[in-house]
Amino acid sequence: MALDQSFVGRTYPPTAPYEVGREKIREFAEAVGETNPVYTDPEAAKAFGHSDVIAPPTFVFSITFRAAGEVVEDPQLGLDYSRVVHGDQKFAYSRPVRAGDRLTVTSTIEAIKSLAGNDILDVRGEVHDEAGEHVVTAWTKLVARAAEEA
Amino acid sequence: MTAKIAYDDVEVGTELPTRTFPVTRATLVRYAGASGDFNPIHWNEKFAKDVGLPDVIAHGMFTMAEAIRVVTDWTGDPGAVVEYGVRFTKPVVVPNDDRGALIEVSGKVAAKLDDNSVRVDLTATSGGQKVLGMSRAVVRLA
């Protein structure tokens, strides 16, 4: 069943701040096999001009996707999460995410489409720091694949 | 932002060092924990097959995280990445054995932009299939 088009353009209230911790960045860097000390060693990060360790470029997805969860799991929208695969992902950074950041995400549904029985949802997440400065924008395309005919 | 590659030293067509990244079921469990994405298609074979997938597949975001390493290891400073986007064209299927799958990534400079930036186009394959499409990063060089 096609998703409700009236959700297009809907913006959700900013999330509560997510506190980026050094150890969380370390855990994520290790999970993706990263060895660059800029993720784990504050001195190495400072040598690159950062005030603390920074996060790998895709780290912020964990935060924006959690924010998008409100959309994805909204029963009124009716997206079948068990059939959802990730279609596209894009980030535009004003600066890297770093330890000590307190980040809020404002999610907006940019588009809802139905293509060959698949439901396609585009969500934009604007990420700001505690000072209100823009850090990164994340565009996420989710595809709920059509259920096979029984 | 301190990239170790200078803008003046690269040309359109400059190739970045190619990398191969392994991924096993253990990798996926670890990534699920670190990222908070516990969708069972990434760790539960029965579930994956029930929803029509060939087997457990890697998180697209894991593949995306590996692919950008070709760029960030080249520039030195990951903070030099200005933009990064991909399309997930095929899943990386991860069999339940000790070898798992391999993700092979290459990249080359596709355009020189303003502000000392270049666009790098990435190619990522696994099992001979292209797993990322439109995979592009804009990175600011020294």
Shape verdict of chain B: elongated
- Poorly predicted regions of chain A are none
The averaged pLDDT of chain B comes out at: 95
Q: How are the strands ordered across the major sheet of chain A?
A: 1-3-4-5-2
Strand order of the largest sheet of chain B: 1-3-4-5-2
User: How would you describe the oligomerization state of the chains in this entry?
Assistant: heterodimer
CATH topology name of the domain at 14-22 and 60-140 in chain B, in short, is Thiol Ester Dehydrase, Chain A
Query: Which homologous superfamily in CATH is the superfamily of chain A?
Result: Hotdog Thioesterase
Please state the CA-atom Rg of chain B, rounded to the nearest Å. Answer: 16 Å
Strand fraction of chain A equals 25-35%
Strand content of chain B: 35-45%
CATH class of the domain at 14-22 and 60-140 in chain B, please? Alpha Beta
Distance separating the two termini of chain B:
8 Å
- Structural class determined from secondary elements of chain A: alpha+beta
Describe, in plain words, how this protein is organized in 3D:
Chain A has a single domain (5-21, 57-144), classed as Hotdog Thioesterase (Thiol Ester Dehydrase, Chain A). Chain A has three helices and five strands. Chain A has helices at residues 22-31, 42-47, 61-72; strands spanning 18-19, 84-93, 102-115, 118-128, 134-144. Chain A is elongated and about 50 Å long. Chain B contains four helices and five strands. Chain B has helices at residues 25-35, 45-50, 60-67, 69-75, and strands at 15-23, 81-88, 101-112, 117-126, 129-140. In chain B, strands 1-3-4-5-2 form a five-stranded antiparallel sheet. Classes of the chains: A alpha+beta (150), B alpha+beta (142). The interface between A and B is large, with 41 and 41 residues.
